[in-house]
Structures are given as structure tokens and as C-alpha cells.
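Deviations from the work plan: none for this task. Representative record:
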Amino acid sequence: MREDFREILRLTPVGARVLDVGCGEGDLLDLLTRERGVDGQGLEISADGVSACLARGLAVVQGDADHDLDSFPTRAFDVAILSKTLQQMRDPRHVVSELLRIADRAVVSFPNFGHWRVRWALLARGRMPETRALPNPWWSTPNIHLCTLHDFLALTDDLGLRIEACAALSGGRPARPIPPRSVLENWRAEAAVFVLRRD
Amino acid sequence: MKALSPAQDGSESGGGVWRFPADRPLRLDSGAALSPLEVAYRTYGRLNADRSNAVLVLHALTGDQYLASTHPVTGKPGWWTRVVGRGLPLDPDRYFIICANVLGGCMGTTGPGSTDPATGAPYGLAFPVITIPDMVRAQAMLVEALGIETLFAVVGTSLGGMQVLQWAADYPERIFSAICIAGAARHSAQNIAFHEVGRAAIMADPDWRGGAYEAAGVRPEKGLAVARMAAHITYLSEAALQRKFGRELQSDGLSWGFDTDFQVESYLRHQGASFVDRFDANSYLYITRALDYFDLAAAYGGQLAGAFGQARDVRFCVLSFSSDWLYSTAESRHVVRALNAAGCRASFVEIKTDKGHDAIFLEEPALDSALRGFLASAAEKRGLT
């Protein structure tokens, strides 16, 4: 099981109404449905992903988080999940603020561009980083809006959001709760998962 | 009741014509009342003991109730034998599948070709103008008459897809799930324009006789054929036409005249000519009119989400085809956004294909797997085994 999935599973209340944005082939939604009995809805951009979800019996709409979140009514869900997708959004600020309009709580995970390997690749080699969390070369990566933990904090502060929980995700090890504003963690965490609420 | 041709896969099949007595008229949106009302239908499979496995399939503009059995006029296989049959997504061994000829149609349900009780002659243009809500009301009467309180699913393609949405608006408590394939929540200006070409062709045929052609012993076959030819183009994509025909000629060299030089011309003429054997010109006028009048949001102050306000317990599946320009993905997306806004549980996928609107009837594995997955999960929730 993906480590961020394990953490999201832990954070999701039983029977919650869940929207998984960028749900792919539905692995997480399927897990949440089976293990937490959630009432799940997915949003996924690729037709193949949606077809795979439908074949698994999940309710998933083909659409684009950048444009289609605004069709959901306010507070329609208990939890909105954006799992390692934020960095692929055209307008991440809009997406995060929409998640917290639609749901009471948002669970957002993303690769940390402040991780020491990333910094090292740029500093020592002068090359765009290719790491476990960011495996693609610059010319084929789907990631267009990468950020560090502290960049993300600045955004949540700006949007007036409260951080309810934060955990570092590093290479297959269990998620490790961290103080989100720690300078050290901004070097150490390969990726992170945040639980956000409106303040 | 006439003898029925069996289902093509040999599974249990039934049907007939349900006749509603004069004291149960169909109240129409126009204010008129239609009686007597007859609804011709076919069924496949068997209704289970708790009457929870019924599926109502709603056909397209020129379709009919011969879903999975040989068509009595053309002798051709049923129109959806790719989806309905043993081992297929709509399996008669699992579901009780009903398909009725639409109100205004010409395969046994009351329409402009039926006898007007006031005159004893066919209605012709004396038949009242009907709407999609009227069609759905007639379907609901049939479903009730068959003793089914809640349908496990309503499944519709094209015109049928629009009826599915109308079902969700008018009878949400009577459906458990709803599948709208290549449909829309309204007819666009382009849709209306193409229909107007078809109607103009029919009405320009001298044999149309103001709609009273039957009494004169003639049929406006030329006009109806042209209507079908124009409409048929809208069912295909440019890519599919190119792939099938390109600029291929019927024989070596051009004729330097107006015969069917090109294969695509021959194909369209054949489509037109074979259509008139199985379809009625006045039915074509009435049903296309009903489509043109369709705008589901209109009754909800222009807010489509309002139509689905009572349908939060219905499980929706909306499917479109990428090369369909008749009822495009944009129309389906519009429906899905309204479902989201209404807080309904919805699935939607655009199926990649170059076959255009006609993909409904053609080999599309992605359509099958989407239907299979959606139905299986809904059946589980419904407690069907």
C-alpha cells in the first residue's frame, strides 16, 4: 500500500462523504470504501482511469480539477482528497480553496521540492532533480507547480486555512508526524501530507 | 396479443400491447388528453419475486421495442444485441428488461398513424403535439401497469438518454439508477436546424398530403428518405465517413451525371430507401418536434441542477462519445455538472471513438466495461444476485 494512502486511510472517519480529486484508477477510493465504508466520489481527468474506476463500481466523473470543482456545491463532502496531484494543477491556489469550500476538511499530499536531494541536484549538478518522489526528466514531467513545504504553508496562511495535522512521507517508511513549520523537515521530508480546515 | 419472436439468445422473452382504457387518458403537456393509449413493448428475462430487477431501456429517435429480438419488418437483429443478451452487460438471466415503443412512434404505441376515435381515420396532423415528459409519463404508466414500483435502472440512448434525465426529474423515487448514453438536457440550435431540414423534406413531398397520406393510399417516401439521409450524416463522424468511404467511387471513373458516383452517396441513398420501409413520416415529424421542444432546465428556472434536486438517492451514469457531434461530450458534461451541483452520485466518462453518435450500436469495449462495472455495483447495492 502506498504510504500516503495508509496515512489518508488513518485520517478518514468511518462513513465519511469523500471526494477524491485526481483519483486515477481508484485505488485509494476503493481502499476507503472497503476499509472505512466511505460514500466516495472521484474526479479524474483520464478516460482510462475513469473506466477502470467504473469497472470497480466506483462513482467517478471524468473531469478536470482546475475547472470542474466549481460545479460541486458548498460543503457537499466531509473530506476532499488531493493525493500527489496538487503539483499538476494549473491553478493550485484555486484548487486548494475550492477543496475547502466543497468539504469541511482537505487532505493534500505532494512531493517536497525543498528535500535535500532536490536542492543538491540543483546546487551541485546544476540539473533539474530526478528523485524517487520526482522520477521524470523535466521534459516529460506532468508536474508544473512544484513547491516546498514552506511554500505550501505560505499558501495555506494566505488562504486562512488551519493545519490540523501534517506528516512526512519518505520512501516507503510509515508516515511520520512533523511540525509543519520546522526548517529541518523542509530538508528531510521527501513528500508530505497535510490535513487542512477552514479557520 | 400477436405471436412474439423469441429473444435472439434464446432467453425468456415476452411483451405485447398494453391498452389503457378511456378513463385513463394520458395528460399531455400541451393540455390535450390522449385516449385510448396503447403502449407496445417487449420484455426479456423474468421479474424476480420482490420485483426489484426491472430495467427499462429507452430507445433512440427511430428505434423501437425490438431490443434483442428480430425486427418484424426488416428481419434484422434487435438494435442493441451488443449490450442486451446472455453474458452481456444487460443480461436477461439477471434482469427483467423492458423496452417500449415511444409515444408517437409507429411500431404499435399510439402515434399519428393510430386511429383517431373522433373520426375513425388515422390521426395524421390531428394527433396532438407531444413532448419528452409526455413520453416518459406513458412509460411510467406502462411500468406501473406491469406491477413494478421501482425500476432497478432506466437506460437510454440519444432520445432515450433525454428520457432518462426526465425520469430522474419526474419520478426519482421510482428509479434506483439511471444511465444516460449520448444524450443531452436540451436540444441545441444545430440539433433543431437539422431536424427542420428533415421535416421540410417530408412536408415538401407531394405525397405527404398535409399529413393525410394514408387516407390517400400514398406515402411520402421520397421526403422521408431525404430526412433520413440528412439525419444519418449527423450520426457519423467525419473520420468514420472518411475511413469507410473516402472519395471511393462506385465504379471505374465518373459518370459525368447525377447518378451515385461516390460510395458515400450510394450508402446514404440506401439508408434513406431502407428507412422508409420501417418508419412513418408523421411519426418522424412528431418525435423530432418533441426533441426540439426539450429543455429540461426550463421548468426549473433555467437551473438544470433543479431538475435533479429530488434525485439524490439515484445512482447516475452518464456516457458520451468523443467524436459524437450530434449530442456532444459538452452536453453530457453540462448534465454531469448539474448532477454534481445537485449533490447526486454520478459517474461520467467520455468514450474515445471515431464512430460518432452511431457508436451506441457499434463495437465499443469501453462502453461495455463501463456499463458492466456500473450495473454490477448498483446491483450489489440493490441486493440483486
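The beta strands of chain A are 17-21, 39-44, 60-62, 77-83, 103-111, 161-169, 176-177, 191-198.
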